[in-house]
Structure prediction request, 353 residues.
Amino acid sequence: MSIILGIETSCDECSASVLMHEGGSFSPISISTFSQIELHQPYGGVVPEVASRNHLEQIDPVIWDALQKAKIEIEDVDAISVTNRPGLIGALLVGVTAAKALAYVTRKPLVPVHHLEGHLMSAFLKSPKTGVPKIEFPAVFLLASGGHTNLHCIERPPESWPATLLRDSLAGSSMDDAAGEAFDKSAKILGFPYPGGKWIDEEAQKGGSPTAFDLPRGLKQKDSLEFSFSGLKTAVALLAQRLGKEGVLEDALPDVCASVQEAIIDPLVRKTLVLQKMKNAKSVVVVGGVAANSRLRARFLSESPVPVVYPDLQYCTDNAAMIAAAGAVRFAQGYGLPASDFLKLNAFAIAEH
Ligand code: KG4
Ligand code: ZN
Prediction:
């Protein structure tokens, strides 16, 4: 059994979590997150310098809140894990520096974590409502967030993941915008606040038809596992302009949103199921903020021949429980850096693995 403190500051959530790892189960004991969404909303997207400065203010209270909620002292944790790649460099450095300082003072091992490995691990977190998730291998993972759109085929449970897991298991990714980014950019054009994914989802649910407007799908070839969403922005802008001129944009919004949503969701669902069939995978797992989308969930429910697993909503968007879980796996595998080594640890904006 080990107790891990996880720290996440790669983008616009400042988060800390205490997690217990025991016999293949990953149980978050506490989680404390400060979301910066309201701070970035006036700018229509994340402003890196605003993010870093706010992380600096929030990191201490968030860590102490997580420890307090878990009713433990920092001395009780076995290791500290922190996202050190990829992300906004100024934001990552705040979390990494805080984690180094804590680990140095307490002489605890420090475990650097890849943010995307954290997202994959979010699927294994024990849910207060549904318990330990049942994921059968091989499993196809769709990771769809504001920054990434990846398809992975994963053969084994986390305890036996190699250090090169992300690279070895990658089957496809976006060549340009991420799925969440496509939602956010389209939403901005249509006048919704940042981040716009949930607004498009909600507006589409007001009776919008996914086939009302024909919007482009990138890389339509049947067996391609790559994604492209960059053509969508122009098409949405032109459509909004035309409907605006005709004075019908407001009334058509549910149809426009349902069509935009379909243009993003359709390739995600289709390509995930192509990979599932190719690999004869026994489960499909959907992680990242876009996993919250109701249309995506409805389509997987009706089209997937194997069970589809989602993390709890609180673990879909960026959070430190998933970082603590990824840290727990790597700590158990011996990747914890001792005090003599971790002062050299750095953060990386871009990281292949
Ligand atoms: O995983 P996440 O917190 O971000 C990154 O790690 O990058 O996901 C945030 C993304 C945003 O782009 C947001 O618009 C999208 O997830 N999102 C949604 C929904 N809820 C959040 N997209 C579509 N439908 C939703 N219901
Ligand atoms: Zn993320």
